[in-house]
């Protein structure tokens, strides 16, 4: 029986009888063993990466630009099959480039037919099956072979009392399902759950309970990055809660309790504030966590009481010294280049940044006009050596953290 057939059967079992599944509630609670990550109010002008990068580790990769490979925007990027897999949310497509930057193929096809997807809701690389696992807004799951780009099989994810928001592979036949508080409004008035662990054709446990509120029409702001893998272990967080959990076959265990000086409140208070859309307190929304052996890279929003939208923040946390190194309204910087970069994590200590071609051209011009020959460092020379036109695809900056 294939993985997708197992997924489909798992949903059928979920619909027929939840009483056979194990709920995992007590493990959700933060206790004294949970490491507290304090993010203070000290604001730095920039967060420099220079001191934590491996020397000479930055590589510049120019992505080939053709009519077929033109990129509107990079929402996610993966490294698989010695290639870069890019999800372009603006043009709603998935493109594969060789590690040299040359265009290889498109993965999947936009449409309403068999093996076609509409708007992508969830997309992750499944390292155990070497596939891209895609779920669209209609809850259709399609697995694509990374090497050929061909669709292998599809299954529609529809079942009672649970409106799926994301599915994350945790093994060849293992996955975590998350609903982001979404459910069928005709659901019975009992305790609902936000996270499920699926093993082959069986839901092993349900976790993160929350009350049914009949008149609620508000849904939390979701993140494309609720899940991440570090040291081959699946991690999970919810934006409103800012607690990072380690997910295993036995249930979730709190790993980091991220506390902001800007806004401190209990889990119960944050949950009530979320479900009732109350605006009476300062709030934070965790958007992205990237973890290495030494650091946590955090992206979050600060939302002032009375407001619905917040200010974007970036923080760098030293795991070894348990200290927030920097906190800024700007993203991370490579000071040697005077360049702001927005990071995507490829592996435990490898990152990649996406820089628009137009920005590269401006920097090339500035280096030539302002700097002397003695001020042109080897890294700046790499920028000057790039052959790029204004409307070309972006340049990838591959880097390694110490």
Question: Could you please describe the fold and organization of this structure?
Answer:
By secondary structure, the protein is mainly beta. Helices cover 11% and strands 42% of the residues. The chain is built from 4 helices and 29 strands. The chain has a 5-stranded mixed sheet with strand order 1-16-15-14-13. A 5-stranded mixed sheet has the order 2-20-19-18-17, with no helix packed on it. A hairpin with a 6-residue loop joins strand 18 and strand 19. It is globular, with a radius of gyration of 22 Å.
- Spatial ordering of strands, largest sheet: 1-16-15-14-13
The coarse silhouette is globular
Q: What is the residue-mean pLDDT, rounded to a whole number?
A: 84
Query: Beta fraction of the residues?
Result: 35-45%
| Major pleated sheet | 5 strands, mixed
Alpha-beta classification: mainly beta
**Continuous helix count:** 4
Proportion of residues in helical segments = 10-25%
Report the count of strand segments: 29
| Low-confidence parts | 1-21
Rg calculated over all Cα atoms: 22 Å
Ends distance: 43 Å
SSE blueprint:
Blueprint: H1 3-16, E1 22-24, E2 35-39, E3 47-48, E4 59-62, E5 76-80, E6 83-88, E7 93-98, E8 103-107, E9 120-126, E10 131-136, E11 140-145, E12 151-156, E13 166-171, E14 174-178, E15 192-199, E16 202-210, E17 227-230, E18 233-236, E19 243-248, E20 251-260, H2 267-276, E21 283-291, E22 295-303, E23 311-318, E24 323-328, E25 332-334, E26 339-341, E27 343-347, E28 350-355, H3 357-370, H4 378-385, E29 395-400
Parallel strand pairs: 1-16, 2-20, 3-25
Antiparallel strand pairs: 4-29, 5-6, 6-7, 7-8, 9-10, 10-11, 11-12, 13-14, 14-15, 15-16, 17-18, 18-19, 19-20, 21-22, 22-23, 23-24, 25-26, 27-28, 28-29
